[in-house]
Design a protein that fits this description.
The structure is a single chain. By secondary structure, this protein is an alpha/beta fold. It has two domains: 294 residues, NagB/RpiA/CoA transferase-like (Rossmann fold); 58 residues, no CATH class. Helix content is 51%, strand content 10%. The strands form two sheets. The chain has a six-stranded parallel beta sheet with strand order 1-10-7-4-2-3, sandwiched between helices. The protein has a four-stranded mixed beta sheet with strand order 8-5-6-9. Strand 5 and strand 6 form a beta hairpin. Helix 3 crosses helix 12, helix 9 packs parallel to helix 10 and helix 16 packs across helix 19. It is globular and about 90 Å long. Pfam families: Fer4_8, LUD_dom, LutB_C. This is Lactate utilization protein. One of its GO terms (molecular function) is 4 iron, 4 sulfur cluster binding. Keywords: 4Fe-4S, Electron transport, Iron, Iron-sulfur, Metal-binding, Repeat, Transport.
């Protein structure tokens, strides 16, 4: 039995064969229905989040606390991960270390094979999408079934997620009804023949379809929102309860979690359990917050395996500017305020991490050498809205500019840009030459074109007016009008 929605991914969560962002966005921005779906959904979530955050007078202090906890944890990540391993092992779990996607997939596949099972149910997990786990399991003859409602829609529709919180945000109710009606029977219980596109009917169809999988599954795969080092506790927050079914019913539970998800203590966890729900679902608390520590006789899975995933995170940690991306708690607030994401959609970003956070995370996990990865730091207007709403104060615009510099330094396609920057650097280091250029530009200003004629510069100036040069440079005006003041006369 094949897994629905199989898609090949790279180690950094970027899909093979995807075009660079400008090309992908050129197509998606002409999709009127997609833009309408995105506009309606993001504006609704954005407004609700703002109301939820406004309820807390100490929100800025919470935000700063979240930032400091994350930074302190990342500075001592090795210590906290070893403490976590010790506590998980003492509680009856088994810890595995995966350097990259291939190793993580091998570990999970071998663990599932050891149980004799040919299928698994899955909790919504960005980490397993990042490593292409579903595809790896399918290659081994194991079917992986997504149980989150939005992920189910994406999987049945042979689609790709386009949002961190709401993977099927690009679909409307009529499209979802058609997916359920035509695809559910291929992978289990079919949709009712009289299925309508009302949210209640669609949710009930998914509930009935998934229930038989929950009751039959022997193995579940999850991620985790947080891991508490002092006790070895895993934490998953969700809104539907499907995740809890996966975390409690199967005999074997395998959790694949990025190493940056660890927090030192329960006191630290308290901060994030206030920041995350308000920033993501605009709720005071998630309807389902599931926590488990190892295994317990007669309660929950008999076996628990934790796969700690690096996959580029250690390299990201080494970058003093870029490492702040590892603070991310996957709330998706940055996507909901981004004017670029709202118009281009998540698929244009070419990977499992869309929007502003994807534009800084994917190039760091996978490197800036690929076509998609090199284009993502430029998929932004640098308006700063993403930084303003980030619950852990990731300065995404700062990282974007930092990554643009890396792209320009390492990619041959930016030779003209590098040459221009070197020329500007020399000119600014030589005041006499700069003054001569300014005077020449002022004297020839009547001959200056209104638009730039060639290459990328032409596209830039098509929507912008070039500035008018003054009759004389500022330095000459200052010298003529302030010389006496400067000399003390």
């Amino acid at each position: 039995m094949s897994t629905p929605g199989a898609l090949k991914t790279l180690s950094g969560g970027v899909y093979l064969g995807m075009p660079a962002f400008p090309e992908a966005a050129r197509t998606s921005t002409h999709d009127a229905r997609l833009r309408a779906n995105l506009r309606r959904a993001t504006h609704t979530i954005r407004a609700r989040r703002a109301d939820a955050v406004a309820e807390l007078e100490d929100w800025p202090r919470l935000r700063e606390a979240g930032k400091r906890i994350k930074d302190q944890t990342l500075r001592h990540l090795d210590r906290y991960l070893l403490q976590l391993e010790e506590k998980v092992t003492a509680a009856g779990g088994t810890v595995h270390w995966a350097a990259d996607a291939a190793e993580a997939n091998r570990i999970v596949t071998s663990l599932v094979r050891a149980t004799g099972s040919t299928e698994v149910v899955k909790v919504k997990s960005m980490a397993t999408q990042e490593i292409g786990l579903n595809e790896a399991l399918e290659a081994a003859g194991i079917a992986a079934y997504e149980t989150d409602l939005a992920e189910l829609i994406v999987q049945l529709g042979q689609d790709r997620p386009s949002h961190i919180l709401v993977p099927a945000i690009h679909r409307n109710r009529r499209e979802i009804r058609e997916i359920f009606r035509t695809q559910m029977a291929r992978y289990g219980r079919p949709a009712p023949s009289d299925l309508t596109d009302s949210p209640a009917d669609l949710a009930e169809a998914a509930r009935v379809h998934l229930r038989e999988k929950f009751l039959r599954a022997k193995v579940a795969v999850s991620g985790a929102n947080f891991m508490v080092a002092e006790t070895g506790t895993m934490v998953v927050v969700e809104s539907e309860g499907n995740g809890r079914m996966c975390l409690t019913l199967p005999e074997t539970l395998i959790s694949v979690v990025g190493i940056e998800k660890v927090v030192p203590s329960w006191r630290d966890l308290e901060v994030f359990l206030q920041l995350l729900p308000r920033s993501s679902t605009a709720e005071r608390m998630n309807p389902y917050t599931t926590m488990w520590t190892g295994t317990h006789r007669g309660d929950g899975p008999k076996e628990f395996h934790l796969v700690l995933l690096d996959n580029g995170r250690t390299a990201t940690l080494a970058d003093e500017v870029g490492r702040q991306a590892l603070r991310c708690i996957r709330c998706s607030a940055c996507l909901n305020v981004c004017p670029v994401y709202e118009r281009a959609g998540g698929h244009a970003y070419g990977g499992v991490y869309p929007g502003p956070i994807g534009a800084i995370l994917a190039p760091q996990l996978a490197g800036v050498g690929g076509t998609v990865e090199a284009s993502l730091p430029f998929a932004s207007s640098l308006c700063g809205a993403c930084y303003e709403v980030c619950p852990v104060a990731i300065d995404i615009p700062e990282v974007l500019v930092h990554l643009r510099e890396q792209v320009a330094e390492h990619n041959s396609g930016h030779r003209l840009e590098r040459a221009g920057m070197r020329g500007a650097t020399w000119l600014l280091d030589h005041p006499g030459a700069l003054a001569a250029v300014e005077r020449a530009a002022a004297k020839t200003r009547a001959l200056h074109p209104r638009t730039l004629p060639l290459g990328p510069a032409k596209g830039w100036s098509e929507s912008r007016d070039l500035p008018d040069f003054p009759a004389r440079p500022f330095r000459d005006w200052w010298k003529a009008n302030h010389t006496s003041e400067m000399s003390g006369e």
